[in-house]
């Protein structure tokens, strides 16, 4: 490893450390990710010829520009997909589309609420995404559960179910979106083989955590009527099915047209936007401007988008200088080619550091093979989707859903680690064991 490559790795590690310690430094991780990206590419430009020896010295700068544009194009597909999906969910939510969640899980039994909430979160996360689903479920829980100690347990279950639900769906988590867009997993493959392990990783923790909840809620703990838009019930139903049904249709659209997934998201967003504009023609302009898509776009979490951009482009530098390839070879040598061990370790690491750069790094470390465990829908890629998603639940800071719930409910790192981490780990291992059974005896 050259001194320049070492410098790039040091910058990346320091940036990564600052991101992991965001709660201590009080500096938004998006800002650190962008700085890390620019510094890494700047260091590469100090001696680009050493990384592209086959390119003439007069053309090497142009070569680097082409490489950056190539990686930016790959990252843009993921970012536009996320922005479109976030907007669609915001449209549905702002018009009362998720009121059915309240009606479906409301019950006086504390344990029944646990199971209903776990299943609702699990399946919603697969359709929407784990981050958005977590926010929706916490907002509902705040109205259903007044006792803080009980609500912390429910909130922890939301994190677990949201991450597990996102792991078996190509659109349920940023990491699965990345793997799906990259083409290393398919919709049918990841759903058919990862669904059962993901479900088990929820059932085991829910079974254990239910014993922390006893009794019933007071009758007064009922949800008040929801404040929804001026749209009629029929119009709200149309918006809901266009939004959620459209998200489900995106993988089908990709299969039919072979266009990138973000094109399907833009199709759904365009249809939903047009429909809401038509509905607003018959309502009072002053009362509905805040509900229009043009205004809802300002609510999109651009800080998260910038974070993903910085991380993906920074990881691209490590891929270009050969660090990821060397790291992948080292992992294979240490594990003896045992993909369960490699992905299992990656899953544990994803609870400590963000799973987005981990998965991005793995995509750069390991080439896609024609056949075998590294082929499309091979054991390695499917296990990576499961482990990176479910493993992020082991610590409260290990996933976007966990960080959001941590902020909303003021959950401390120590409480979660003491009460929840070991439970998640048991479910994590149980899911991996079930995947081994499925692969060994069914496929």
Describe this structure in words.
- There is one protein chain.
- With 443 residues, the chain is mostly helical.
- It contains 22 helices and no strands.
- It is globular and about 75 Å long.
- The two termini are 42 Å apart.
Which short descriptors sum up this protein?
single chain; 443 residues; mainly alpha; 22 helices; globular
Unreliable residue runs:
none
Order of helical and strand elements: HHHHHHHHHHHHHHHHHHHHHH
Give the strand content. under 5%
Shape: globular
Rounded to the nearest angstrom, the distance between the terminal CA atoms is 42 Å
* Rg calc: 22 Å
Main sheet record:
none
Short description:
The chain is an all-alpha fold. The chain has 22 helices and no strands.
SSE map:
Elements: H1 3-20, H2 22-25, H3 29-44, H4 60-94, H5 99-105, H6 110-127, H7 130-144, H8 148-167, H9 174-182, H10 187-209, H11 233-257, H12 261-280, H13 285-288, H14 293-296, H15 302-320, H16 323-335, H17 339-349, H18 355-365, H19 379-391, H20 400-409, H21 413-419, H22 421-441
Helix pairs in contact: 1-3, 3-15, 4-9, 4-11, 4-12, 4-15, 6-7, 6-8, 6-10, 7-8, 7-20, 8-10, 8-19, 8-20, 9-18, 10-19, 10-22, 11-12, 15-18, 16-18, 17-19, 18-19, 19-22
